[in-house]
Each structure stands twice: as C-alpha cells, then as structure tokens.
Amino acid sequence: MILELLKAYTDCILPLDTADWKAFSSLFRERILRKGECFADEGKYALHFSLLLDGVSKAYYKNKDGMDCCTGFFVAKQWMGAYTSLLSELPSEITIQALTDCRLMVADFSSLESLYQKHPALERLFHLLVEQHQQLKQKRETEMAKMNIDERYLTFLRIFPSLDALLSPEEIAVYLHLSAAQLARVRSMTLMVGW
After folding, report:
1. If we measure between CA atoms, which residue out of 50, 45, 48, 68 comes closest to residue 58?
2. Running DSSP on this structure, what letter comes out for residue 77?
C-alpha cells in the first residue's frame, strides 16, 4: 500500500520504467517523525528527502532576533526536504519541524545520486520535484506580495484548511506577514461572513 502511494506521487512528476522504479523505490524506508522532532535543522547538512504520508510539518528559519519565521508548510502527500542544502551541499538555511506526528517515506539523497549514471531518469525526476517545489514557493511569495490581508488569509484557509485550528495565531500571522491585530480582524470578519 505504501509503495503504491509512493509510486502514484512519483508518477505525477515523472512516470518511471520498471528498472528505474525498482531502483528508486528501494531507497525509501518508512519513518515516524514525532511532534516537535526535526527532519532538517538550520545550520546542518540535509541528508534526506521524503514523501510525507500523514501529518503536518513547517519550514522556518530564525531571524536575527531569534524569532521563528515560517516559510511554508508540508502536508500529507507532499514531497518534503531542505532541497537547497541537498543540491548545494551547504548547511540548511531552514528547519523542518513536525507540528503533528508524521509518517514519512524517507530516502538518503547521496544514495539517489549514486544511481544517476545507471538510471538518468532518477536525476530528472529529482530535478522536476525540486522545480515543482520552487514554483509553489515562488507562487506563494508572489501572492503574499500582491494580495491584500483578507485575500492572504482566505487563500491560507483554502490551501491549508486544517491548519487554522492546529497553529497558534502567532504562527499564522508570521506566515501571512500580518500583525496579530490584523489577523484577529480578518478572522473575525471571516467568521461574520460564514467562511
């Protein structure tokens, strides 16, 4: 069942032939990440990437004042990793932390790279995966810059419907680039109109 999910989400990016799929799928192991545990740590080298099967994680960095600045969320059935660190072989600029218990299919990135010569489709697959992640990240950044406060919050609710109840108001405000007062006003307005 789990390998079927992995195959389905791999095929959405790039369908693999039998030999490539066998090599790719052999890299993955199931792992449980408990609430509060980190998948990647700011300042440390990232070694793995994963498919998040169940749960929610957040990506963030610490600003110069030591405050968490959330850059995004990973929810069930999303690929997850500190991709810049994996590709650049530099320490990660972000931390990825479980907000709930998470079930993952995890692969070692260097093991994937070792297969590239024999299975070039796997290199293409990983680059498409990273490209997809970057496109979503750029779309979010553009939306945050162009949308008004109400639109940002409604978009957040549409994309992450379960996170409004899971996250603290402070975490949501930081993610949406709002003050606590702005978020409170937007939330009260959406309740009044029955979102």
Report:
1. 68
2. T
Question: What's the whole-number average pLDDT of the chain?
Answer: 92
Task: Quickly tell me which residue has 């639109």 as its tokens.
Answer: 151
The whole-model pTM stands at 0.88
Number of structural domains in the chain: 1
Taking residues 122-145, report their average pLDDT: 90
Count CA atoms closer than 13 A to 37's CA, side-chain side.
12
Q: Which residue has the higher pLDDT, 3 or 192?
A: 3
Secondary structure (3-state) at 10: helix
> How many residues comprise the chain?
195
What is the CATH number for 40?
2.60.120.10
Q: Looking at the domain assignment, is residue 8 inside a domain?
A: yes
Q: Which residue blocks in the chain are alpha helix, DSSP H?
A: 2-11, 18-25, 83-88, 109-113, 120-146, 149-159, 163-166, 169-176, 180-193
